[in-house]
Known about the structure:
By secondary structure, chain A is an all-beta fold. Chain A has strands at 3-6, 9-12, 18-24, 33-38, 45-49, 53-54, 62-67, 70-75, 85-90, 97-98, 102-106.
Amino acid sequence: IVLTQSPGTLSLSPGERATLSCRASQSVSSSYLAWYQQKPGQAPRLLIYGASSRATGIPDRFSGSGSGTDFTLTISRLESEDFAVYYCQQYGSSPVTFGPGTQVDIK
Amino acid sequence: QVQLVESGGGVVQPGRSLRLSCAASGFTFSTYTMHWVRQAPGKGLEWVAIISYDESHYSYADSVKGRFTISRDNSKNTLYLQMNSLRVEDTAVYYCARDEQWLVAPFDYWGQGTLVTVSS
């Protein structure tokens, strides 16, 4: 399953809303779709799984939605620590695949 | 707390071999599916391989099939990746990650990564 993310880069200011898109080449089984955040020099961190469930310790400003082939990660109000790269992943079929990432930059 | 610590990275010539290790602690390693994921410099994440909790099932990305072997030693709480016939394009940070169940769970913990550089 090929995942496409848009936009490639999102330039926003703190306090603004960020909307990131992930589109799959075929339906993702049982919504086995996750979102990860990665900062420079760090490992990815799980944010969202099952398309819409927040991982342990993830603030509620992060939310996920979607099903089938179209998924969205929303950050309701950007904080300084949210500027990073975000990857979507489908983990329901082999091979596991990741999207190319969306970089969220400070405007 | 859950910890995954990779080791074994380094600089290696094309065609040579390298074995990576991932030492796990803070959870019952023998009950988790484990993965290797890599990230070339400045690039995105690429899944490499998966192994079931009991080593009965495994799978590989096409890009490494026939060259890399994933294995584990549950008595030592350690995951391995044997990399043979290395190519320049295998240069990347290699992460190990766990999931609760084969192909139904996300990667909830990751190691910090180990850098493999393939260069003559």
